[in-house]
Design a protein that fits this description.
It is built from 17 helices and 19 strands. It is α/β, with parallel strands linked by helices. The strands form four sheets. Strands 5, 6, 7, 8, 9, 10, 11, 12 and 13 form a nine-stranded mixed sheet that branches. Strands 14, 15, 16, 17 and 19 form a five-stranded mixed sheet that branches. A three-stranded antiparallel sheet has the order 1-2-3. The radius of gyration is 26 Å and the shape is globular.
């Protein structure tokens, strides 16, 4: 791009470039300064434009309150919750609690998904081949001599040692009474900030939505209950909290009672149980699974849980995980499952789909056309079925149903977001204001065309860089691409410039690109539109 627009100025001693578009000579110290020049805002192939639908809003309201702003400021725990926490932890040593909670937080942040059995077997076969061991040597036929049998056992032990060194050893966490206290001290404020932030966006974009029934899957210490009642005060008729740990449930009840065993529940209609209700008739207006799917022992278990939750959803399904690569992959897994079905998810896992279909109706190889699984792969497969899940779409954060561009941009960075929060005064050595990075997705059980008209607004997916005369916004657009928009008042108008200036990471920009006017099916069928491998971050404005 730079080669076609700029000419080299060899006569200059200092590094310089000549812009053939605006006929300006740039003197710069590094290449980064060249790419951040104001001129770059005019070379975009798809120029970002202001959404005319909010012109009327901006005539009566300031830009700092434009409807694209969905990220709240620093979040503070409710006063009743803070008092309950202080009452519960008054008997605990602050220093010891701080050390244990910090260790748990670091462990949870570095936690990975369990390794699937099929992946273990494939890795074992690859290691055996590298070590010069034949595949049949790993299988005991029962017809070997004593010496041959001993050789096979030695080879197996050697491969097993190598596996233990290289494979991640996932282990379930047992949340006992002590672990519940430690988890609350280290994670409750952070979890609350992420869930509150998501609920805040749902309410702002859907002010008429008044949920009556809520299901918190993997409720833990009851964070979702507090966040939901803070956003939708006096709205809920029933809140069902499901967690396999009875100690976690007891601790959550204790906090709702103000930290006293004989206290009165802060919110009415809150129930606790260890397992999901079996009946399909039990549905809920909004269902939340926050930091739960990572604790499941296999992909099959995660898939079954997501399918069950989606079938019980009336309006919104919220899934939240850590803002790490592993958490982001779980979010992608849920996204593929809801939009494309279980069969697609398994085909993708086996690399039978080289380019991801852009719609659930995209062509997928039939069972006869697929490669038949060998003995190694057979262990990880269960019956392929067409998805019979109810129709829905991604409400947030994605402005599209296409392939996530972050997964193919080559940066190996997750699509995550950041929220500031104020930690309670439980740990004396912890900073008062902290930031939580999380990945999330919100599904809505409705057709996308029936949703709000602003669903195509791009999402800001990285921190906004504000300069005196221009603003850098990395946005995910409705055309399924990541764009680097350099917004200036002279090129894009003052309205869009000031809207971008007040926007932050995670907010939406009230704008669109020319490609947004096309339908999803038009973009899928457009041979010049590019596929997943072509979707790399491009500079546009």
């Amino acid at each position: 791009m730079a080669a076609s627009l700029f000419g080299s100025m060899a006569s200059f001693r200092s590094p310089a470039m000549y812009c053939k578009q605006c006929h300006t000579i740039f003197l710069y110290r590094t290449k980064i300064e060249m790419y951040t020049s104001r001129c770059m805002s005019t070379i975009a192939k798809n120029k970002t434009k202001m959404d005319e639908s909010i012109r009327e809003f901006l005539q009566t309201s300031p830009h700092r309150k434009h409807p694209g702003l969905v990220r709240p400021k620093t979040i503070i725990l409710p006063e009743n919750l803070q008092k309950a926490l202080q009452f519960v932890f008054k008997e605990y040593s602050g220093r010891e609690l701080a050390e244990k909670s910090k260790a748990l937080v670091n462990y949870l942040w570095s936690r990975k998904r369990p390794v699937e059995d099929s992946e273990v077997r494939r890795t074992a076969m690859a290691m055996a081949k590298q070590l010069g061991i034949q595949d049949d040597a790993l299988e005991d036929t029962g017809e070997l001599s004593v010496k041959e049998s001993q050789d096979v056992k030695k080879k197996r032990k050697r491969v097993a040692r190598e596996l233990r060194k290289k494979m991640y050893h996932w282990k379930a966490i047992q949340y006992t009474k002590e672990m519940s206290y430690i988890y609350a001290a280290g994670r409750m404020a952070a979890n609350y900030s992420a869930i509150y932030r998501i609920f805040h966006e749902i309410k702002k974009r859907n002010p008429d939505f008044k949920p009556k029934l809520l299901l918190d899957f993997g409720s833990g210490v009851g964070t979702t209950v507090w966040a939901a009642n803070t956003i939708w005060e006096n709205s809920f008729r029933e809140i069902m909290c499901v967690d396999v740990s009875s100690d976690m449930n007891d601790f959550a009840k204790l906090l709702l009672k103000g930290g006293k065993d004989q206290g009165v529940m802060t919110f009415k209609g809150v129930f606790f149980r260890q397992y999901l209700p079996v009946s399909a008739l039990n549905t809920f207006d909004i269902i939340v699974s926050a930091y739960t799917l990572m604790e499941m022992s296999s992909q099959k278990e995660r898939v079954n849980a997501i399918q069950t939750l989606w079938r019980k959803t009336e309006h919104f399904l919220v899934i939240v995980e850590n803002g790490t690569n592993e958490g982001y992959k779980i979010i992608l897994e849920a996204r593929d499952l809801i939009l494309h079905g279980e069969r697609f998810l398994k085909l993708k896992q086996k690399d039978l789909i080289k380019e991801r279909p852009q719609e659930a109706s995209a062509e997928i190889p039939s069972l006869e056309e697929q490669e038949q699984p060998n003995d190694v792969e057979q262990a990880s497969l269960y019956t392929y079925q067409e998805s019979d899940l109810p129709e829905g779409h991604v409400f947030s954060p994605c402005p599209h149903h296409l392939q996530c561009p972050r997964s193919t941009d080559g940066t190996n960075t997750p699509c995550n977001f950041e929220q500031e929060y104020e930690s309670p005064k439980l740990l004396s050595n912890s900073p008062k204001q902290q930031k939580e990075k999380f990945s999330y997705i919100v599904f809505r059980k409705a057709k996308r065309k029936e949703d709000l008209s602003d669903s195509h607004w791009p999402r800001i997916v990285r921190p906004v860089v504000r300069k005196s005369n221009h603003i850098h916004c990395h946005i995910c657009c409705a055309n399924g691409q990541l764009e680097h928009a350099v917004v200036t008042a002279s090129k894009h108008g003052k309205d869009l410039f000031y809207c971008a200036r007040y926007a932050r990471w995670g907010d939406r920009l009230p704008a669109y690109t020319p490609d947004d006017d096309e339908s999803d099916s038009d973009r899928i069928n457009d041979t010049n539109g590019g596929t997943g491998s072509d979707r790399k971050e491009s500079k546009s404005a």
